[in-house]
Amino acid sequence: MFLQSLIEAEEGMLSYETLDAIADSVNPTLGVVSLLVPWVKRNRSWRQALLLNAITFVAVALAYVLQALDNATGVWPSAGLDFSTHTAIFIAVASSLWQHGIAWRWGVLAVGAGYAILMRIQNYHSWLDMITTSIAIVPLLVLIWWAVGRLPWSNARAYSNG
After folding, report:
1. Helix 127-150 and helix 102-121, axial crossing angle in degrees, nearest 10
2. Tens place of pLDDT for every residue, the chain, 162 residues?
3. How much is the pLDDT for 14?
4. CB-CB contact of 101 with 160 (8 Å)
5. How far apart are CA 53 and CA 46, in angstroms?
6. pLDDT, position 10
7. Dist. CA 38–CA 49, nearest whole Å
8. How far apart are CA 92 and CA 140, in angstroms?
9. Minimal CA–CA distance to 59: which of 96, 33, 23, 25?
10. Residue-by-residue DSSP string for 52-86
11. How far apart are CA 32 and CA 19, in angstroms?
12. Which 3 state secondary structure label does DSSP give 15?
């Protein structure tokens, strides 16, 4: 009986390919959501929505700039690590969703935790790869969003009215 349960559990597990497809869909899905939310959220002008979309593109571009810098300098490989573009892109997109208030923040944290675990299970990156990539990009994104909030016409309070 116990052996049969083990066999059935083994057959019910998701394959590497299925988990890979799920992992590959996280960033694009969140990217689309982060670009759509500003346009459907109440009390937001088209100017604010456009600004949020533009800064989201800047944030994602920053992730790729960091990747290019690592490719040019070899900082992560010199430490025996790998720059996690998956993590950098996720955090860049998550930083946009973060601007929409507490419910979005909890959602981003939950998805981020699940995505990190999935990347580890799939052996995409080590925990240290993901942590060091996060340490590199988060302060830059905080600075970008802080600067945007200080623009006189940005109406930063409208970003987190939910």
Report:
1. 160
2. 443 443 444 556 788 898 889 999 999 999 999 999 999 977 778 888 999 999 999 999 999 999 999 999 999 999 999 999 999 999 999 999 998 889 999 999 999 999 999 999 999 999 999 999 999 999 999 999 998 886 655 554 445 444
3. 83
4. yes
5. 10
6. 54
7. 5
8. 10
9. 96
10. HHHHHHHHHHHHHHHHHHHHHH-HHHHTT----HH
11. 20
12. coil
Q: Which tokens belong to 115? A: 């995505």
Which positions ≥6 away from 55 have C-beta within 8 Å? 96, 144, 145, 148
For residues 156 and 65, what is the distance between their CA atoms, to the nearest angstrom? Answer: 26
Task: Please report, for the chain, the start and end positions of each structural domain, with discontinuous segments joined by +.
Answer: 15-160
Burial of residue 87 (number of CB atoms within 10 Å: 0-12, 13-18, 19+):
buried
Distance CA(137)–CA(63), nearest Å, equals 7
Distance, in Å, from the CA atom of 98 to the CA atom of 3, rounded to the nearest integer, reads 46
Give the predicted TM-score (pTM) of the model. 0.84
**Identity of the amino acid at 154:** S
